[in-house]
Model the fold of this input.
Amino acid sequence: MVDRASGHPDYQGNFIPEIWSSKINTKFYETTVFGEIANTDWEGEITDQGSKVMIRMRPDITIKKYKRGEKLDPEVPEGNHVELTIDRGDYFNVLVDNVDEVQSDIELMDEFTDDATEQMQISIDSEILGEVYGDADDKNAGADAGKKSGGINLGEAGSPVEVDKDNVLDYIVDMGTVLDEQSVPQQGRWLVLPPKIAGKIKKSDLRDASLAGDGTSIMRNGRIGQIDRFTVYSSNNLATSDEDGSKAFNCVFGHTAGLTYASQIAKTERIKSEQYFGEFVRGLNVFGFKATNPEAIGHFYAVAK
Done:
């Protein structure tokens, strides 16, 4: 066994086939959802970190009453746009020693790169979910949500709603009503909940398969699926706050038209090390995201009881 320098990771103790099985224990990753809740309509237009994509928004056309013989009043729609800035970047830089690689019976470089890719997705997912709820339209959040009706309590700082198995479906319906009042399309809606609140759904009346419109109860298949036009996702990456010793979750809901995401692997390299007998594989991912339609984003602030 070749000696290693002080501080150099001992891959041999983990990967040498004479000592350990060739199968690596499965590593469980956080479930990411950003690829499901955001559109990528402008992803092909970015080139590098610092790039900006000008997204033109559809103007509002005024509908006027017509009277016979009246001169028509022309309207010149004002152009409007939002900026999607590619101003965020994550990277990984992995070194594999030549001796470790030769003596190992698995592809170390592939294993490390695969793990780095998964970790990068988790980082991006946490970043998006940790910020996008703050971009929700004022009428889609707080204790007085609802553009038309108002008075729909979705929770607010200092006063989160308390969710249990008896009221969780009511709150989901309320979130759907909030989007209805914003005239958000019914197809493409999503809802992201933490596992603790998602578990309340499985304890609710939706245990009856017929209520969920499924042939098999969610208690048997483990899939939450669609509820009141929402595709429901469970995620550990939602932002949390402390509320009198209880963990409050910044849940988000909306429509895929509300959030756009763009990403590009700007550089991926595999190069020889000048200081070690080994190779580096490193990757840089530049990305950006933007709530292009805040009226299609909602914030549900809740604790699970």
